[in-house]
């Protein structure tokens, strides 16, 4: 756009002051020089508008609380989910005690079948379908990562509600686990009712121990 031909030296100055004018700025460092031209109005408008928009946005979202940021929405949704989960746990536990788990749930074929389905999907990889926590390879029995659930030994309490709690919360924070392996908190994946179902299934597989 400049009318200076390549052979002509551009004008020296501080800044371009007219549209279309090309200025070669006065400074020079290590032989590096800098041109200057006036920026087009559409560009300047976008630039100043973006600055004004930032101020409006910042005030509305971060100072007046008129709008909530995505982060705040996610945080409050997560809190809501946590609250719903503890409410579900409280209401399941309100109707559940050791007696009920043994004499009503573990003897109810529907609940035991539901528990078995959950066990087959989520638990057999470490505890085995027969609860022995071993896998037969040829005539050898290879141990799986989980503890056996059919040996009458319960590391974290033998009452049905102790077992429920362990499945729900996983290996306690201060426990060492089993051969260095810890179990995850299944409450992250399963509902309290599903955990009660799977606990009933485990009880139903230990009939003698629970007096069934
Ligand atoms: C990835 C492997 C893995 C899976 C899958 C797994 N567990 Fe475990 N489970 C373990 C380990 C390891 C332990 C021992 C943890 C410890 O001692 O702290 C354990 C311990 C237990 C215990 C305590 C046993 C005892 O003798 O005290 C119960 C009950 C149990 N699991 C139930 C379940 C149920 C129900 C599921 C499925 C919902 C499940 N586990 C899925 C690895 C697993």
Automatic annotation (TrEMBL):
<keyword id="KW-0479">Metal-binding</keyword>
<feature type="domain" description="Cytochrome c">
    <location>
        <begin position="110"/>
        <end position="206"/>
    </location>
</feature>
<protein>
    <submittedName>
        <fullName>Cbb3-type cytochrome c oxidase subunit FixP</fullName>
    </submittedName>
</protein>
<keyword id="KW-0408">Iron</keyword>
<dbReference type="InterPro" id="IPR050597">
    <property type="entry name" value="Cytochrome_c_Oxidase_Subunit"/>
</dbReference>
<dbReference type="InterPro" id="IPR032858">
    <property type="entry name" value="CcoP_N"/>
</dbReference>
<feature type="transmembrane region" description="Helical">
    <location>
        <begin position="42"/>
        <end position="63"/>
    </location>
</feature>
<dbReference type="InterPro" id="IPR038414">
    <property type="entry name" value="CcoP_N_sf"/>
</dbReference>
<dbReference type="Pfam" id="PF00034">
    <property type="entry name" value="Cytochrom_C"/>
</dbReference>
<dbReference type="Pfam" id="PF14715">
    <property type="entry name" value="FixP_N"/>
</dbReference>
<dbReference type="InterPro" id="IPR009056">
    <property type="entry name" value="Cyt_c-like_dom"/>
</dbReference>
<keyword id="KW-1133">Transmembrane helix</keyword>
<keyword id="KW-0349">Heme</keyword>
<keyword id="KW-0812">Transmembrane</keyword>
<dbReference type="InterPro" id="IPR036909">
    <property type="entry name" value="Cyt_c-like_dom_sf"/>
</dbReference>
<keyword id="KW-0472">Membrane</keyword>
